[in-house]
């Protein structure tokens, strides 16, 4: 249950005075648990070798966060809105998103009943807004269910700075939107910028969505649209491209479609996305990923839900004097039990296999030393 503070705001304009009502809502999620990984690459001294890992982890299903949302009724069906959202690691209390105070979201804007919403600030792109909710990781599964390296950003690996976003009203189940992130560079307008667009149709149990995202020169320059590195690389027999699972790229293009259908206690769906990366690591190397996902969730009882996902990813690398292809097969299962409307406990497992000498890398943990990797996680989540 959200805790809402309601205050009366009285404003004056020239010789007339009017009063409007404002509200500010404090909300958040705290998610902590334990995670076991059977196979990670040794990062210490000595030759590569396979080791296992067991640790306490934060944000397995949803990133731990707290935030403030507010609105003010301006009259005539128009409202001023804002959101400030901080992400943090519950295991040590540190701020997430490279230490930002409000790294998850920070925006202000206007909304109307008939026209839609315009916001400015640090925001999610259209892939996150429209396609993400149809994936397992973007709805109920959490980070470990993401496509390899979260190459399509359905798990919110990065946000868009300096962005203006429009989201339409709902027109008979159809809605759409778009975003543009400015580079804020007067000498290189097209460097480190981003733009995206998406649409959704929801009619009863059926939902269908499509989205597109493009970033240019996402090199982490301060002040640009993208300051976190894109969370994607290609695990090959010669080692990962880029450090710590990230790459810099001259251009990223991601697009996809998805659908879901609910029949009683069962919801099932599928998503296809493709991500293309040009001039990887400031070279002439290119990488692309095709992701095919099937997912389903069944409410066995009002308190217990069971979920499953299968993803096939075909990844290709061209450059560095070689041409490689790696296929990833990933299966995930989850059980989620509600202790109350705000608190649940969960257990899940994810298995990934990479072919053709590729290294498995379940998103959210370190890369495997071989082509196989298993992650088992359990924890508790509380919403307020």
Keywords:
mainly beta, 20 strands, 59% strand, disordered N terminus, Outer membrane protein, (Porin), signal, ion transport, porin activity, transmembrane
Could you name the CATH class?
A: Mainly Beta
Distance between the ends: 6 Å
CATH T-level topology = Porin
Q: Structural class of the secondary elements?
A: mainly beta
- Beta-strand content estimate: over 45%
Give the SSE map.
Blueprint: E1 3-13, E2 16-41, E3 50-58, E4 65-75, E5 78-87, E6 105-112, E7 116-123, H1 126-131, H2 137-141, E8 160-168, E9 174-181, E10 193-203, E11 206-216, E12 235-236, E13 239-240, E14 249-263, E15 266-280, E16 285-299, E17 304-319, E18 322-338, E19 343-354, E20 372-383
How would you describe what is shown here?
The protein is mainly beta and 384 residues long. It has a single domain, classed as Porin (Beta Barrel). Helices cover 3% and strands 59% of the residues. The protein contains two helices and 20 strands. It has helices spanning 126-131, 137-141, and strands at residues 3-13, 16-41, 50-58, 65-75, 78-87, 105-112, 116-123, 160-168, 174-181, 193-203, 206-216, 235-236, 239-240, 249-263, 266-280, 285-299, 304-319, 322-338, 343-354, 372-383. The strands form two sheets. It has a 16-stranded antiparallel beta barrel. Strands 12-13 form a two-stranded antiparallel ribbon. It starts with a strand and ends with a strand. Residues 8-356 form the Porin domain. InterPro entries: Gram-neg_bact_OMP (IPR050298), Gram_neg_porin_domain (IPR033900), Porin_dom_sf (IPR023614), Porin_Gram-ve (IPR001702), Porin_Neis (IPR002299). Pfam families: Porin_4.
């Amino acid at each position: 249950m959200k805790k809402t503070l309601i205050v009366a705001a009285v404003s004056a304009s020239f010789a007339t005075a009017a009063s409007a009502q404002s509200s500010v809502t404090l909300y958040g999620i705290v998610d902590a648990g334990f995670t076991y990984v059977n196979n990670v690459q040794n990062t210490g001294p000595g030759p590569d070798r396979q080791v296992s890992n067991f640790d306490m982890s934060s944000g397995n299903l949803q990133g731990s966060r707290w935030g403030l949302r507010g609105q003010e009724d301006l009259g005539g069906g128009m409202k001023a809105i804002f959101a400030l959202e901080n992400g943090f690691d519950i295991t040590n209390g540190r701020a997430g998103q490279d230490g930002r105070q409000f790294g998850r979201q920070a925006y202000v804007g206007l909304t109307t009943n008939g026209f839609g919403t315009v916001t400015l600030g640090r925001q999610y792109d259209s892939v996150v807004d429209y396609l993400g909710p149809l994936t397992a990781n973007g709805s109920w599964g959490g980070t470990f269910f993401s496509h390899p390296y979260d190459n399509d950003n359905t798990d919110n690996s990065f946000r868009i700075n300096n962005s203006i976003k429009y989201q339409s009203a709902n027109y008979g189940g159809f809605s759409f939107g778009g975003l543009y992130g400015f580079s804020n560079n007067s000498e290189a307008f097209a460097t480190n910028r981003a733009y995206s667009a998406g649409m959704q149709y929801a009619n009863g149990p059926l939902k269908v969505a499509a989205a597109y995202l493009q970033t240019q020169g996402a090199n982490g320059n301060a002040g640009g649209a993208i300051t976190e590195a894109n969370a994607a690389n290609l695990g090959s027999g010669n080692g990962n491209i880029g450090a710590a699972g990230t790459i810099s790229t001259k251009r990223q293009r991601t697009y996809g479609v998805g659908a879901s259908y609910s029949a009683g206690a069962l919801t099932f769906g599928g998503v296809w996305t493709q991500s293309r990366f040009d001039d990887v690591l400031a070279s002439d190397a290119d990488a692309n990923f095709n992701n095919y996902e099937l997912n389903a969730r069944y409410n066995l009882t009002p308190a217990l839900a069971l979920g499953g996902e299968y993803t096939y990813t075909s990844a290709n690398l061209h450059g560095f004097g070689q041409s490689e292809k790696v296929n990833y097969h990933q299966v995930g299962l989850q059980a989620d039990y509600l202790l109350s409307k705000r608190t649940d406990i969960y257990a899940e497992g994810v298995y990934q296999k990479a072919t053709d000498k590729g290294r498995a890398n379940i998103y959210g943990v370190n890369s495997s030393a071989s082509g196989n990797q298993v992650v088992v996680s359990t924890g508790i989540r509380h919403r307020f």
